[in-house]
Amino acid sequence: MSFQAYLDTIEDKTGLTPRQLLEIAHEKGLGDPAVAAGAILEWLKEDYELGRGHGMALVHMIKNGPTIASKHVGTTGVHRDESDTLWLDGKATKPTA
Q1: 36 in a domain, yes or no?
Q2: Which of 24, 56, 65, 75 has its CA at a distance of 20 to 30 angstroms from the CA of residue 88?
Q3: Tens of pLDDT, residues 55-85
Q4: What is d(CA 18, CA 15) in angstroms, rounded to the nearest whole number?
């Protein structure tokens, strides 16, 4: 599953866009670089019932922003994506390629 597909599925499950979850994470102090991934995963599991796979996609976004490694772009690998920039503003507003 691509990183973007993880974020789109999270939106379906939570009703929140990735950007909204990012803002909530920062409000809770989870955007601090010193915060361990485990603390973020715990929050996502407790508040949104998200598992580790989906949670790690959000951890990546919270810690690194919307950019992913270009090695995943246009590949046939498991985490293939169309772009090295994740769309955070919700599936309904995502521009088509």
Answers
A1: yes
A2: 75
A3: 999 999 999 899 887 776 776 766 677 777 8
A4: 10
